[in-house]
Amino acid sequence: MKRSEARGAVAAAYRDLGRRGLIVGSAGNVSLRTRKGMVITPSGGDPDRAGADAMVSMTLEGGVIGDGTPSSEWAMHAAIYRARLDAACVVHTHADACTALAALNQALPAFHYMVGHFGGDDVRCAPYVTFGTPDLAALAVQALAGRSACLLANHGMILHARSLGDATASAVLLETLCRQYLMALAAGTPRLLTPVEMEAAHERFKTYGPRPAKPAKSAS
Ligand SMILES: [Zn+2]
C-alpha cells in the first residue's frame, strides 16, 4: 500500500469509528503500519472532519515524515508495532463502556465466550499512568501479551488487528462486551465461564465463526 493510500485508509477508519460513536472529538486515534513506520491520526484530530491530508506519516522512533503533528499517543502505537509483528493497525478509543470498566480498574473477565476473540480468557486492564508517556506504552504492551486488546485504567482501550476493517469490528465488539458485562454487574453477580469452558470456546473458534486473534510471539 502506498503512503497516500495508507493515509486515505486511516482517515476512512477514523471517520467510521467517529460515526459509530466510539471516537468522540479528539478522544481516540488510529494508525496503520507502513514500510517506513506508520501513518497515524493527527494531534487534536476530529473524526468528523478528517481527510487523508491531515494524517501524519512517521517512523516508529518518532520522526515525522513530511508535515503534521501526530497523536499524543503515537508512542503507544509505535511500541505495539515494535513488540507485535502481527499488528498491522492499532485503534485507541475512550469508548463509553470500555472507559467505564477501565475506571473500575478491572479486566473484562470471561463472562461471555466472545471475550476469547481477543486471544485469551480475559481482556486485561493496564494500570493507570499519565497519557502520552513511554510508561503507558510499556504497560499497554505488557497488558497485550497474548491478546489483541487491553483496557487502560481510567483512560480507555487499545487494540491491534491485521486490517483496519478487523480493527473497527473488534472495537465495536469490545465496546459491546464491556457494555453487556456492566449491565450484568448492575443486575447481579455474573457467572464467569471456567477455564475448561473457555478452552472449549477457543477450540471452537478455530473451526467455526469469527476467528480469534492468535497470541503472537513478542519481537523482543
Ligand atoms: Zn486516550
Structure in a nutshell:
The protein has helices spanning 3-19, 74-83, 96-103, 134-143, 164-187, 195-207, and strands at 28-33, 38-40, 56-58, 64-65, 89-93, 125-126, 149-152, 156-161. With 220 residues, the chain is an alpha+beta fold. The longest helix is centred in the C-terminal third of the chain and has 24 residues, at 164-187.
Q: What is the first-to-last residue Cα distance?
A: 26 Å
Mean pLDDT: 93
Largest sheet: 8 strands, mixed
CATH architecture: 3-Layer(aba) Sandwich
Helix content: 25-40%
Dominant shape: globular
Going by CATH, the homologous superfamily would be Class II aldolase/adducin N-terminal domain
From the helix content, strand content and strand pairing, which structural class follows? alpha+beta
CATH topology: L-fuculose-1-phosphate Aldolase
- Summarize the helix and strand pattern as letters: HEEEEHEHEHEEHH
Q: Count of helices?
A: 6
Strand arrangement in the largest pleated sheet: 4-3-2-1-5-8-7-6
Residue share in β-strands: 5-15%
- Total beta-strand segments: 8
Bound molecules: zinc ion
User: Could you say how many structural domains there are in total?
Assistant: 1
Q: Class, according to the CATH hierarchy?
A: Alpha Beta
Q: Over all CA atoms, what is the radius of gyration?
A: 17 Å
Low-confidence residue ranges: none
Which features would summarize this protein structure in a list?
alpha+beta, binds zinc ion, 220 residues
